[in-house]
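Folding Task

Wanted — backbone structure
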Amino acid sequence: MYKRVRLTDTVEVPPEALDDVTPDLIKRLLQDKLEGRMDEEVGSIVTVTTVHDIGEGAVIPNRPGVYYKAEFDALTFDPEMQEVVDGEVVEVVSFGAFVGIGPVDGLLHVSQISDEYLAFDEEGQMLASRESNNTLGVGDAVRGRIVTKSIDERNPRESKIGLTAKQPGLGKHGWLREARQKEEAAAEGE
C-alpha cells in the first residue's frame, strides 16, 4: 500500500529563488507540485522525502523561471487489488459506508458489509441490523479487502475503490473482537 519510490521530475525555480537552488528548495517545490497527485504507475504521491540529484538548469524562452530536473524519493500510496486494509468509516449513506484508507476513501457497499439486512438510520448516521443489533457508523474501525479499483489521474478525488467485508476476519473491528471472544469462551467451556 505505502511505498517509497525513486522518481525523476522537472520543477520550475522562480527568479527570486535562483540565488539559492538547494535540495531543500527543490524538495519544497516538488512537494507543492506533486503531493496529492495520482499516477497510474506509482499511485498517489503522499510526500517527497529526499532530493538526491539536481540537474543543470534550463531556460525556456518567454518563461521567467529556470527548470531543473531532479531525482528524488517519494512516499506513495498505491492500493492493490485483493489487499486487506484497515480504515475508519468517514461517512455513512443509504447504500453503504465510505472508509478512509490512506489519502483516499473506499466504498463498502451495504451488500458487502454483512449477510444480514442493514437498514440506514439517517438520524443516527449508521447502518443497523435488526437481527443482531450490529451497527456501523462514522468513526468505526473497519477491516476490508479491496475488490475494485478505478484510478482517475486527472481528478484523484474521483478515483473509486470498492471494498468487501463479507469474509472471515473482515468487518468492523468490534464485531471481530466479539466473535473472537465467543470462540475463546466456547473453547474454554469444552
Summary: Helices lie at 23-34, 173-189. The mean pLDDT is 90.
